[in-house]
Amino acid sequence: MRHRKAGRKFGMDATARKAMFKNMVTSLMLHGQIRTTEHRAKELRKYAERVITLGKNAPAEGDIASLTGDELQRARAARVHAIRRARLWVHDERAIAKVFGEYAERFATRPGGYTRVVKAGRRAGDNSSMAIIQLVEAYQVPEIDAVVEEPEAVEVAEPADEAEPVEEAAADEGATE
């Protein structure tokens, strides 16, 4: 019995399973969505959400620039610590930059639930249930009194007729000689 045993084994040992999830988290952070089996996608959620939370809770580069003294030192140390913890799961520098830049800003006001698992039918080879795990869009609080302005109409000027195109002029000169 598996009472109080969290996580799925996927028929592999711990090191292989950990390597698989590291690769999947890195791919998800780079591409924004990946296609995998439904069970793997559901298990991947917890790792991906932890990494995004690290990026979100770390001090931003812009905030660090305005600090001085001990506050600056603490903020830099906290950011470096968060980046090092994220590197345990993400092995690509571009993905790390996205986590601590784009995704941190995108999910700044979102209290969690950064990923979504969408069922994608069955795989042809073994009939395994497939799913797409993707990062959700930014969390926007709708404004009730938002005024939408109509876009201004842009007039398109019609091109002026030129005397003769260059190719036709060259062909005419050759015919007269």
Task: Report on the architecture of this protein.
This protein has 177 residues and is mainly α. The protein has a domain at 14-135: Alpha-Beta Complex (50s Ribosomal Protein L17, Chain: A). It has helices at residues 14-31, 38-57, 61-65, 69-86, 93-106, 166-176, and strands at residues 33-37, 115-122, 129-135. A three-stranded antiparallel sheet has the order 1-3-2. The mean pLDDT is 85.
* Span between termini: 98 Å
CATH top level class name of one domain: Alpha Beta
- Count of individual beta strands: 3
Described by its quaternary structure, the protein is single chain
Largest sheet entry: 3 strands, antiparallel
What does the secondary structure layout of this molecule look like, with pairings?
Elements: H1 14-31, E1 33-37, H2 38-57, H3 61-65, H4 69-86, H5 93-106, E2 115-122, E3 129-135, H6 166-176
Summarize the structure.
Helix 1 (14-31) packs across helix 5 (93-106) and helix 2 packs across helix 5.
List keywords for this structure.
49% helix, three-stranded antiparallel beta sheet, 6 helices, 50s Ribosomal Protein L17, Chain: A
